[in-house]
Amino acid sequence: MSKTISTTCPYCGTGCGVLVTPQVNGEVKVEGDRKHPANFGRLCSKGSALGETTNLEGRLLTPQIGHIPATWDNALDLVAEKFRAAVAEYGTDSVAFYVSGQLLTEDYYVANKLIKGYLGTANIDTNSRLCMASTVAGHKRAFGTDTVPGNYDDLEQADLVVLTGSNLAWCHPVLYQRIAAAKATRPSMKVVVVDPRRTATCDIADLHLPLRPGTDIALFNHLLAQAHEHGAVDSLFVREHVSGFDAALDTASSTDVAVTGLSDEETRAFVSLWLASEKVVTVFSQGVNQSDHGTDKVNSIINCHLATGRIGKPGMGPFSVTGQPNAMGGREVGGLANMLASHLDIENEGHRDLVQGFWQSPTIPKNAGLKAVDLFQAVNEGKIKALWVMCTNPAVSMPDAAFVRKAISNCDFVVVSDMFASTDTAKLADVVLPATGWGEKTGTVTNSDRTISRQRAFLTPPGEARHDWQIICDVAKRLGFENGFDFDSPAQIFREHAALSGLASDQGKDFDISGLAGVSDEDYESFTPTRWPVSANGRTKDRFFADGEFFTSSGRANMLSVSQPETTIHETNTPFRLNTGRVRDQWHTMSRTAKSARLNQHYGEPFLEIHPEDAMSLGLRPADLAVVENTFGRNVLRVLVTDRVLVGDVFAPIHWTAQHASNARISDVVAPATDPVSGQPDSKAAKVAIRPFAPKWYGLLVSHKELSPSTSYWAKSQTTTGWQIEIAHDTVPKCWETFARDAFDAPDADVSSVLDAAKNHARVALHTGGQLIGALYTSDRPVSVSREFTTSLIGTNRPGALHGRPSVDQPDPGPTVCACFNIGANTILDAIRTQDLLSVQAIGKALSAGTNCGSCKPELAALLNGARGRAAAE
Ligand SMILES: Nc1nc2c(c(=O)[nH]1)N[C@H]1C(S)=C(S)[C@@H](COP(=O)(O)OP(=O)(O)OC[C@H]3O[C@@H](n4cnc5c(=O)[nH]c(N)nc54)[C@H](O)[C@@H]3O)O[C@H]1N2
Ligand SMILES: Nc1nc2c(c(=O)[nH]1)N[C@H]1C(S)=C(S)[C@@H](COP(=O)(O)OP(=O)(O)OC[C@H]3O[C@@H](n4cnc5c(=O)[nH]c(N)nc54)[C@H](O)[C@@H]3O)O[C@H]1N2
Ligand code: SF4
Ligand SMILES: [Mo]
Fold it and tell me: Could you tell me the CATH number of the domain that includes residue 316?
């Protein structure tokens, strides 16, 4: 039995502590760390499945030049030469880095140092621009710095938690569970969800406000005006510590809340809950940030907290939950194009001198660099001659992604550092560099409540993979910057970063970890989760701003006068508003989560949520395929008819790439419109036309190996026995058996089939050596065989492949709900009925479902409610 290592989950910004024990058989046992203050032992489905994602399938193991394996020396020499040549010939601003909130702080620190202090340009932006930029800008406008005032304990201590534009149940499941547990022990605690969609998060909501998308400012302005009318303003706090109250209130008072589309009853209920609860936390996330007026949305929320003095004290405050594991660390090292380091400002001469002096670097840029959308625009215009993309997949995740792919393809020289060889971005690069990933690398991350935790390695780097900080330092040294980049370990980088923060804090900045500047290598190794600030003079703080001291030049917080924009929809002459976001069990562009069969079972295919009325008027039936398109691009998605979305709104997940589906990169149809203050893209409001895809036939392939179908639609996902591939096509093959043989590339397999040509109905099974290697099911309607059953037959000689569903003595478990124990919806519904189960806990007792990570509890509740509803109707 090997040693247990404590590390941190590499997914969401909750930042859960994970205990990992490598097993002798090569597997990795993963448990929640009971001592970690973010999760106290809990993990969600993604965290629990981490052990299933560390295999080497798909990993990039050597550097490549022109997609041909190369030595590190040759690859690094080439990168250094191209960057040097670009700067020499076209100037410092002809080079750029595009980095990520998933880099560790130490990686991020050296990347920022190299480009700003040594290459001399601020052209470094990060995927945090697509994620947290509006919050950063909103915080800075209100507080003078990018400060998250509260911490996770506040979520449990609050009397009211308002979740605005946040699907916490799926995106920060452990925080959601902490709130749900607090509410269970203290039922007087209330939860409000503000989201146009009825998400899984609504399961614990006392009130769900399905406001019209893009109308949050109207709601919060209304709240501010009502707070004033009801005498709930904290006049003393405002007088002593806040500027801009009158103007903000004036604007708020003239805002018409009717644009939200909410009923008077709903808004009244919201206002009275808010004003009656002293301890209010307003959690916000991408429904707020990813908007062309996201910064104003952020300030409309902060305004309400400032006006009522509900900030910085236990159980209250505005709370931005960060998306990526190190979104906060990236902000701390200054990874955004308009920041310096340690929350200092690039456009402040004093700050620049201070950082340059500390680094003793040859240069420092005077102006902010290009923000993500403008950066790729400049790449397309040929202004950026050398681009280095690290730890992010912009070919999929940037708005107008097809344009971004074109820009990257046209760029003179593009380097991509990634763990995987075939990401949609890596495929377009001139040089790809193999980076170590979670479990192999070591360093620190900062979570949403300012807690710094260690990631620790428990696996040796595969192939020739190197750590991101090493790769960056290697290039820096080749560029002649040995002095600034002579680091031997992440601990050494961390100490430098911590020391710099002390100087920043002397400039009146919030971020201060100077108390950690002297950590020894041993201290760093045994470092336990620590919330900043940790200053050299011993100052720490659990919360900011209770004392009314802000980081603006006047020391007062700012309320902003923010108005509700009249229209938030981009005109492209097409009718639907496309909202995009996440599903519970996939992480972004799926490079890691799609390796876990049990995570894939939650949703195995890209989909489009559409309201029944809209589906009917378009002639779309459940499980049909729909084309979603506009002038920017086109997607084909499986239709999921549901009244969870409003009429006129549709929702699609962001995760699927060209590796996983024929046409499902959703950002292909997202316009590159941005917030004027933060530069953050408006990712939740694409305007799209929708029509039926109407193929001649639909099909399903289950297979022991990965296939690359040539059908006009396909979407594939890994299963416990191989692969499951949904297909559809517009021409009917002459012979289904031949089609199947070709699809499985199995000319010698034994074929058996059942065919009904009139309905394009075929069931073909292929066996070799008596074992099922593949099966094809087709129909002129979406294929309705049991995916769970047919995939379970692969690699076995069990009968039933042609039938496609289990016989009566073998119950069909139905689609997986509980990923941890692999329990399907049919099993759960059956138990609810036969055992008279009345609560989620009772389901847990009977079947174990929901008792490990608990991420499926909202879905268990939905099944319970559905079963109860049906029983009532019977
Ligand atoms: N499972 C999973 N978890 C993740 C991630 C993942 O990929 N998968 N990614 C992580 C990252 S990087 C991030 S940034 C976070 C994101 O976490 P969230 O922000 O919670 O996730 P999203 O699904 O992007 O969007 C949240 C909600 O905003 C709503 N919304 C859309 N428009 C509006 C509007 O105008 N007003 C309001 N009030 N709401 C609106 C959407 O309907 C959606 O339910 O998740 C993190 N956690
Ligand atoms: N339409 C729409 N678009 C969106 C969003 C949305 O809600 N709607 N959300 C936006 C948001 S909030 C975010 S955060 C982005 C996320 O979008 P991306 O950052 O593009 O997505 P990821 O799949 O997380 O990309 C991370 C890449 O880094 C690799 N990687 C993992 N670990 C390491 C490592 O240690 N080192 C290196 N070098 N590589 C590594 C992974 O294999 C993967 O290819 O998407 C944004 N785009
Ligand atoms: S909530 Fe889940 S994904 Fe987020 S850090 Fe915790 S275990 Fe990881
Ligand atoms: Mo994000």
Answer: 3.40.228.10
Q: CATH number for the domain including 662?
A: 2.40.40.20
Residue 757 and residue 679 share a domain: no
Confidence band, pLDDT 50/70/90 cuts, at residue 37: very high
Give me the CATH number covering residue 827.
Answer: 1.10.10.1100
Task: Please report the sign of the dihedral spanned by the C-alpha atoms of residue 644, residue 648, residue 651, residue 652.
Answer: positive
Q: Which of 730, 757, 792 is the last residue of a domain?
A: 792
Nearest CA, atom 6, ligand 3: 16
Per-residue model confidence as pLDDT tens digits over 559-589: 999 999 986 544 444 589 999 999 999 999 9
| Ligand that comes closest to the CA of residue 321 | 1
CA distances from 320 to 177, 334, 392, 451 (A): 17, 18, 22, 14
Q: Are residues 117 and 199 in the same domain?
A: no
| Paired tokens of 205 | 């909501």
Residues 151 and 251 in one domain: yes
Q: Do 162 and 94 share a domain, yes or no?
A: no
Q: pLDDT for 48-86, tens place per residue?
A: 999 999 999 999 999 999 999 999 999 999 999 999 999
| Owning domain of residue 24 | 5-52
pTM of the complete model: 0.95
Amino acid occupying residue 786: S
Share of the chain above pLDDT 70, in %: 98
Q: Is the CB of 290 under 6 A from ligand 2?
A: yes
Please identify, by atom number, the ligand 3 atom nearest to the C-alpha of residue 325: 5
Q: Is residue 448 part of a domain?
A: yes
- Strand stretches in 165-308, DSSP E: 190-194, 207-209, 242-243, 280-284
CA of 326 relative to ligand 2 center, distance in Å: 12
Whether residues 432 and 416 share a domain: the answer is yes
* pLDDT attached to residue 809: 64
State yes or no: pLDDT of 871 exceeds 60: no
Output the pLDDT for position 811: 67
Pocket test for ligand 3, best of 34, 44, 820, 855 (most atoms within 8 A of CB): 44
Give, using CA atoms, the residue closest to atom 18 of ligand 1: 166
- Write down which residue in 693, 716, 745 finishes a domain: 693
Nearest to 272 by CA among 300, 304, 230: 230
* pLDDT single digits (tens) 627-664: 999 999 999 999 999 999 999 999 999 999 999 999 99
91 and 236 assigned to the same domain: no
**Pair 741, 854 in one domain:** no
Question: Which ligand 2 atom sits closest to the C-alpha of 420?
Answer: 42
Distance CA 31, CA 532 (A): 26
- The pLDDT score that the predictor gives to residue 539 is 81
**Number of domains present in the structure of the chain:** 6
Whether residue 483 lies inside any domain: the answer is: yes
Ligand 3 near 15 CB (within 6 A): yes
**Residues sharing a CB contact under 8 Å with residue 118, sequence separation 6 or more, in sequence order:** 361, 362, 363, 476, 479, 481, 484
**Domain-embedded: residue 88:** yes
Across the chain, mean pLDDT equals 95
- What are the tens digits of pLDDT across the range 738-757? 999 999 999 999 999 999 88
What atom in ligand 3 is closest to the CA of residue 174?
1
Proportion of the chain above pLDDT 90, given as a percent? 88
| Residue 43, domain CATH | 2.20.25.90
Residue whose Cα lies nearest atom 40 of ligand 2: it is 391
Q: For residue 397, how far is its CA from the centre of ligand 2 (angstroms)?
A: 7
Strand order in the sheet with 771-779: 713-718, 723-729, 697-703, 771-779, 761-768, 750-756
Residues 730, 822: one domain? no
- Beta carbon of 593 within 6 Å of any ligand 2 atom: no
Per the domain annotation, does 580 fall within a domain?
Answer: yes
For residue 248, what are its two tokens?
């903000």
Q: What is the structure's pLDDT at 872?
A: 40
Which of 446, 449, 401, 456 shows the shortest CA–CA distance to 425? 401
